[in-house]
Automatic annotation (TrEMBL), chains A, B:
Organism of origin: Thermococcus litoralis (strain ATCC 51850 / DSM 5473 / JCM 8560 / NS-C)
Protein name: Uncharacterized protein
NCBIfam families linked to this entry: PRK14561.1 (NF011155)
InterPro entries assigned: DUF7411 (IPR055834), Ni-pincer_cofactor_biosynth (IPR052188), Rossmann-like_a/b/a_fold (IPR014729)
PANTHER family for this protein: ATPASE, PP-LOOP SUPERFAMILY-RELATED, EXSB FAMILY PROTEIN
Length: 203, 203
């Protein structure tokens, strides 16, 4: 049972990958990139440290351009992040060999988040299972599990070596002469997983 | 990390218990009973077959009486099942030693189901984590996993030796001279887990 799991190297997507493997899935980590920066390499490093197979899927730069325009129009990144995530899920779901897709979205997330209607639409249009291991977990449960499992690096979004959509989106905004700090929340701490806390029992 | 998991012996609550144990929780199975029938014993049998510790918690018969009245008023069991489940979660959550509660409710369930507001209210009022391992899983994913893991017995609700709320609720309705078949859907197939498909690797 293979599952293709959207992976940024952060705590949430790492915890979701851990759960999927524990319950019997063969987990293939997928990092989305738009060919602008090589920021996918941080997710690859983390994937290797955790012992998962990892692949980069390159999406059309036009998607990121459209997302940047949304950021500028809204002065906020929510709609843009949601838009990119839906495109990413669709692009992976449409690959012929893919029967199951997953991500690390959580119960308490606002974006990216697929409601019931969008979830079923995704599954029906592409004949895939969409699995979200963290959907039934609150922030305290997720914090407790990730604290137990992972060695984590915590930095401000601007400084962290990360592989999520934000990194290339911020870069593209800067290219367009827009300061990302006028769009993204100011002190936005984000996390990157560096490895397992204890080696034993997690693989 | 102990979690108190509401358990009927069915596929969903068994799968949720399996996931919780796999990701590192010490799982305590709890079956709710109203002291009318000894229907809890089927869940206990299944719990033992799966190698989980199991406990029965007896709730006030008045809760079931109120639920029976709801069934009669609505000619449908949805509100009653929802009512009992919320009471059951609260009763377990309020126990002093309980820090985490869980159940087998699924993404595609209508009842019992706690929406975001009720979920947070439960967690806040009783200072517990409420964990739902199946919330991010669709029916195909759940079927695939339970088919792989469990030996299952499938029967009509009226005939199955089960431990869920319905069993005592149907009995109480009959006692009141009401035919449960006028309230519950007719050909309602339900499942009971008998054991692991293969012994290895699940414990």
């Amino acid at each position: 049972m293979e599952v293709y799991h959207l992976y940024s190297g952060g705590k949430d997507s790492s915890l979701a990958a851990y759960i999927l493997r524990k319950i019997g899935y063969e987990v293939k980590l997928i990092t989305i990139n738009f060919g602008i920066l090589d920021s996918w390499k941080y997710a690859k490093e983390t994937a290797e440290a955790l012992g998962f197979s990892h692949e980069v899927i390159f999406l059309d730069r036009g998607i990121l351009e459209e997302a940047a325009e949304m950021c500028i129009r809204d002065s906020h990144p929510s709609n843009a992040i949601q838009f990119i995530h839906e495109k990413a899920l669709e692009e992976v779901a449409k690959l012929r060999h893919v029967e199951r897709i997953s991500d690390g979205t959580r119960r308490d997330d606002r974006v990216p988040f697929l409601d019931q209607r969008k979830t079923r639409s995704l599954e029906d249009r592409f004949n895939v299972q969409y699995i979200r291991p963290l959907l039934g977990l609150g922030y305290r449960t997720i914090r407790e599990l990730t604290d137990k499992l992972f060695v984590v690096e915590l930095k401000e979004s601007e400084k962290l070596e990360k592989s999520d959509y934000e990194v290339e989106l911020r870069y593209l905004l800067r290219e367009k002469g827009i300061d990302p700090l006028t769009i993204f929340p100011k002190k936005h701490l984000q996390s990157r997983v560096l490895g397992w806390k204890k080696e034993k029992g997690h693989l």
